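dumping these here so i dont lose them again. two proteins, back to back, each one seq then C-alpha cells. dont judge the mess
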Amino acid sequence: MSIAAWVAGGLTGLALALLVYALMPRRVSLSRRIASFDAGRAPAARATNYPGDGKESALTKQVGTALARFCAEQGWEFGSLRSSLSLVGKSFENYLATKVLLGIFGLIVPPIVVEGASMLGIHISIIFPVWAALVLGVIFFFLPDLELKQQVDARRKDFRHAIGAFLDLVAMNLSGGRGVPEALMAASEIGQGWAFWRIRDALSNARITGQTPWQALGALGEEVQVNELKDLASALSLVAEDGAKVRESLTARAASLRRREIADLEGEAGEKSQSMLVAQMMLVAAFLVFLMYPAAQVLINA
C-alpha cells in the first residue's frame, strides 16, 4: 500500500471522527458556560493590542479566533503568555493559529517527501515518515515559543534601559519644581520609543480611571513583568509627598540601573570574547592538520 493511501485513509478516519464528535450532543458544565460568557466580554477587560497586530492572513484570523474561543470556553486564561504577547505587539489569536498551523505543516511534510521519493523510485519504510512527522510536528509546534522568548527577553532589556532614562527625566522635572504626577507625565512625553509610549499610555489611563500614577506604573510593571518598574511604583507610593526624597531615590535608582546594565554588557562582551577565542583555536587546529596532512601521507606511503 502506498503512502498516499495511508495518508488518505488517515485523513478520512480523522474527518469521520471529528464529524461524529461534532454531531454528538454534549452537556456543557456551568464553569464552561461562565467561561464562555466571560470570553464574550473579555475584549474590554484584556490588555490592549499594541502596534504589530493586524498583519495576519484571513486563515490565521479564523483559526486563531476559533482556538481562542475554545480556550476561553475551557477557562484557560494564559495570563503570562498574554502579557508576553502584549509586550511584543502580537495577538493571542495569531499566536495560537501560528502554533497549530506550523504543527500541521510539520506533520504533512514527511509523507509528502516520502511520496515524492517513491515517485522517483526510492522506496522508504512506512515507519520513517510516521516518526518523522511526529518529531517535526512537535518541533514546529514549539518554534513560536522559542521565537517569542527571544523577542520578550530583548523587549524587556530595552524596557529596563528606557526606565533608566525615564528616571533621570523625572528627577530633572522634579528639580524644576513640578509635582510627582506632573513630572512623571512630562518625562513620559519627552521620551521616544515604544517603552515610553507604554508608560505614557499607562499614565494617561490612570488619569481617566482615577488611579494614582504609581499604581498605573505598578500595573504596567506587572503586565510586562519588569521588576524595576514595580519597585519604582512601590518607592513612589512611599515617598510621593516629599519631592526631595523622591528625586534622591530616582537618581539613585537610575545610577543603579546603569551600573547593572554596564555589568550585563561587560558579561556579554566576555562571553563573545571567549567564543572568539574558541573559534580561533579551532582555526589554528584545522590549519595545523592541513600542514601536517601531506607529511603524514608521505610517511604512510613510505
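---- next one ----
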Amino acid sequence: MLFFSRVFFDHMLENNSIATVHFAGNDFFVGVTPSGHAQAIETNSARDGAATPMELLLIALGSCTGVDVISILKKKRQEVTDYRIEVTGQRRKEFPRGYTRLEVKHFVRGRGISEQAVARAIELSDQKYCSVAATLRGSAEIVTSYEIVEERNE
C-alpha cells in the first residue's frame, strides 16, 4: 500500500505544478516556483518595487517562445549572434483587465540567417511548442513578427 501511495503521489507531482504565493506585507507578495525559485511580486503599481503579475505574464510568454525559437534555430545550424523578444500587451479597460492582444516581436541577429528558418521556428513555437501561448490563446489574440539583422564580418 505504501508503494502504491508513493507512486501515485510522484505521478501527481509530474502532472501538476505547485507554486506558492506568500503575502510579505506592504503590498508585496513572494512567489515560489515549483522548482523553489523565489520572485518578488508588486501589487502597488505606483511604487514600482518589483514586477507585477501582468508583467510576469509578458515575460513568461517571451521566454517560453524564445526557448523554442533559439533551440530550433540552433538545430537548423543558423549562426545567431544575438536574439531578443519584445512582448507588448493591450489590456481591457474594464475589470478584469486581462490582455486582449499580445504582440510578440522576435529580433534575430546573425550571419547568413535564413528568413524561412526564422519564420518556421516562430510558427512552430507559436502553434505547437509554447505552453504559455497555448494557455493564453483562448483569451487573447497573439500576433507574432520578426526582424532579422545581418551581422557583418569585420
